[in-house]
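On clarity, I found the account of how folds are encoded harder to follow than it need be. What matters is that the chain and its backbone geometry are given together, residue for residue. The format is easy to grasp once an entry is in front of the reader. For illustration, here is how one protein appears when written out as sequence plus structure tokens.
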Amino acid sequence: MFYKAQSLTAAVVPALHTALITEPKSLTKQPHEVAIDMAKDVQTKVGGDLAVGRVVGAFVLLGLILAAGVWSEHHAELKRWTDVLYDAFKYGLPALVGLIIGEGAAKP
């Protein structure tokens, strides 16, 4: 959700293609070392980067929810909405932070 990653197919196909067309005699390293290097390259491409725009957008949305809660607090007829908006902010902020941290920790 908050990380952009290249598709697995787009990362694996070039590596497999290179592996299939390379002559074993032309390798400068042992085959298993080349395989490890190629696997690390694929892992780097698929790992993904933090989508800063999405994170900022999510925090802006939470800020708008908080601002709406503060605004509705000054209007007696919107008292029930004040509680709903504050609860949305109260539960949304830790959920957002947890999603960002959890997704980052699960990154390969």
